[in-house]
């Protein structure tokens, strides 16, 4: 996360530790993920659960699923006319990252810089920012917290 100038210097190790302990803004990350996952299984017409890995693997297919979920499936004309590809381009990480509104400014009272929400957008890139022991620990936590609910991610 990009720091504001007035924030104390925290090492990656300190940030990682608080994340693993679930002591982050809005609570443990995996509680949010498993909560939405369970709701999507219990109420599939009300909650749509989409994994980034699946989106990156099949943008068109996932956009079709989202459109159907919100009750606005693409027509044959729209599909043939390139509407899905146009939407994918408009919503791409590159397009969003290049919008002026996302290049500068801060959120949460100046704590988080907007630009910190955009990195490469590559599945699994997070392992390039952590030590091997951190990767192993996080993989272990993710499996422990999510696998009991039938939720699995491609592990690095």
Task: List the defining traits of the structure above.
single chain, 156 residues, mainly alpha, 2 strands, 50% helix, 3% strand
- The helix/strand series, from N terminus to C terminus, equals HHHHHHHHEEH
Largest sheet: number of strands, sense, barrel closure: 2 strands, antiparallel
Order of strands across the widest beta sheet? 1-2
Shape: globular
State mean pLDDT (0 to 100 scale).
88
Rg calc:
18 Å
Number of DSSP helical runs: 9
Helix fraction, binned, reads 40-55%
Question: In whole angstroms, how far apart are the ends?
Answer: 21 Å
Give the total of beta strands. 2
Strand content: under 5%
Given helix and strand content, the structural type is mainly alpha
Low-confidence stretches: none
Task: Please tell me about this protein's structure.
The protein has 156 residues and is mainly α. Helix content is 50%, strand content 3%. The chain contains nine helices and two strands; from the N terminus they run ααααααααββα. It has a two-stranded antiparallel ribbon. A hairpin with a 4-residue loop joins strand 1 and strand 2. The longest helix is centred in the last third of the chain and has 15 residues, at 132-146. It is globular and about 55 Å long.
